[in-house]
Fold:
Amino acid sequence: MQHVTDSLRQRVDVSRLLMPVYTATIFLSAFLLFSVQPMFTKMVTPVLGGTPAVWSIAVVFFQGILLCGYAYAHVLARYLAPAQAAMVHLGLGALVVVLALPIAFDPSFGRPPASGEALWLVTVFATSVGLPFFAVSANGPLLQAWFARTSHPQAHDPYFLYGASNLASFAALMAYPFAIEPLVALGGQSQLWSVGFGALVVGIAASAALMLATSSTQAVGTTATMLQTVPAISREQRLSWIGLAFVPSALLVAMTAHLTTDISAVPLLWILPLALFLLTFVIAFNDRYTKLIAFLRPTLPALAGLLLFASMHVLPMLLAVGVNLAFLFVATTLCHLELYRRRPPTTHLSAFYFMMSLGGVLGGIFASLLAPVLFNSILEYPILIAAVLACQPSVWSGLREIGNKRIAILLALAVGALAVVAVTRVADAMTNAMIVLVFCVFLVVIMLSRAAPARVLLVTALGLAMVEVLKSGGGVVLQERSFFAVHTIRAAHDGRAHLLVHGTTMHGAEWVRDAAGSPLTTRPMPASYFHANGVYQQAIAATRDAAGGRLARVAVIGLGMGSLACASKPGEQWVFFEIDPVVVKLAQDPSLFRSLSV
Structure:
């Protein structure tokens, strides 16, 4: 009897370690998971430049490996006994230490190809950081499944640990640009990450030991055996998990592309959306925050209305960025709160996380890989704004109340009105004041309809379509989307000049017609800040004079539309370095620009 009492007392004492050990291990795992992403992305930046596409591809890659890690965790939790799963996972950790650390970019990959940059970048990521990331990515669902087998009072609902892991991920993303990257060189970061991974292996071993020491007799078997006593997951449940993860994930990538393409190409903006995205999991996967729904749902339509203004660049830049980030935060929080509400019993925990991860990967693939092929602008962003509104409860029942016939009539009228605006070129003549007035009307209607999500969806979709019609005006001659950016050729208001525009930034302009409207056949003349009397030309002239009247060799980083070629003189060798092949193609097209023909 005394032996039994001592055994029980020892078990109780050990159970006190469960929460601190599991929380610390999951926190460290998530911190490593999301610190390696900016670290390795920075390693490849010198090869592919600071384009937002590099970050978008990185996010999709890591989402894909995360899916593989969740699938691996699902297999371990469902088909192996806890002791067997622990041995396999610890073996994987040892394999990473021996084969894949420290993390580094392999210079043997050389320069990226002229096309297929996305596939090349995925290959680089897979061979350089794929195995360590895979090993770390499985810890979230696997450790939660182990915790659910313990004797802890909260073992029946371990989903709160997912919020804790995302808090660590948020901390890692915030720490990297402000503390890690400025203070530690890339080589040192890799070494520190290796030390952290070693500590993580120790934490996993301790978690496994505690799970085996405190698990009940019934919890020792495999999950597959335990599933025989609980209802199966329906197809509708699985699809809802995938869909509610798909939309926020795709919205994250699309909004990041929109911010860095159409508003401001500031590298810090690449991290802020992802940090907010992770923070929504911290908020949503916690019972204390479910009351936020009552506040967030009426806020979402207001932000959707303000997005119409931000999309037309009639708001100050910082305010536009704030509106976009606020919409992402509110929309994603609502989707993730709904995911948390639909969480299954712990016996289906690993399947739930796998479906969530699958939805995230599919969303990332759509926004990062398919959208650039399907659209020549960031059209996926307005589509996903509408998709978020469609995910809100009672939207579909509201649409059924409106009726299919009435919706078809409304859509036909809306399409007809948009077509008239586009064909008659009314959009070209609209001033900023007129645009603000139009979208004020949209905002008022959206706010009056905020209690009817179906009407909010229809009105916002119409407003977003109007934005695209207005953007397609303004003298657009040609628009192409590359891996790196969306490039637009616009004609000036009087048609005398062509401008190369990327988002809100003009990368050069050239006179193409004279005052009478006839095509110019004389030497090309830049019409922007590279014009003959500008400071660039003055600096080049001063340098040429200092060199004895001739510049033997000149290197220009960034081609644009080739304006600086007009500053060259016979006998000088000017070489332009440009990373984007679409820019080269546009600059060399004499029907668009002639600067490179001098």
